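Notes from the 1:1 (GR / supervisor)

We went over the backlog. Supervisor wanted to see one worked example end to end before approving the batch request, so GR pasted a single chain during the call. The sequence is below; no edits were made to it. Supervisor asked that the structure be written out right there so they could see what the output format looks like.
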Amino acid sequence: MNPQRPLKQYEWVMNDLKRQMDEGSLQPGDRLSSVVDLALQYNVGRSTIREALSALKAMGLLDIRQGGGTFVRTPPADPLPVHPGQLYADLWEGRAASLRHLLEVRRVLETGCASVAASNRSEADLAAFEEILREMENAADEQVSEQADVKFHQQIAAATHNPLLLDLMESLSNKLHENMKDMRALWFYAERSSAERLLQEHASIYEAIRTQDAKEALARMEAHITKVEQVLSEKGAGDQPL
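Structure output shown during the call:
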């Protein structure tokens, strides 16, 4: 592991649980606390706990019984290296559930925001949208593009000029940042295309807001989110991890 790269939350949780196993405070046969309790203990989301547990399961250190709890396993005497693809597949399973929940929230919140923004947007809002779209178009790397993507969706909430909608969207901001990489990967997978196509998708939503077509803004945001949901469902039916 690159010591310069900060640990993701699930890696930190995974390493701490593994440390407890190595030190003997968690023994083979011990049952771990529930996902809810572990999330409270580590002050992270439940999806983060599920990712950490999935990784430990892939290492052969946990036995996760559906509906029956999670138990520490006796470490293999001569453990085989975990294939990166299998580890990613296990981690993807936990991320997929988190993504699905977030997309359900976005469908309810962002389609409504797009509709209201089309009715209430100001000239200043349009200028802000155009600046963000330029950032997306000229982004030098994927991280900058991801940040601009999140800003675009937050700007839609700002353009509603409804402080409650803006507060709700801002409360979603951290989760949106956390999952944007997976969402964008799913979008590219669905389109078999490039960032240019994703830029066009956002530009079409902006255009409906610019022309104050509330119905079309809602429909285009709905289509944007539905596309990712459809690919997520297809992957859940047995497709390979991205």
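Supervisor's comment: DSSP finds ten helices and two strands in the chain.
Batch request approved.
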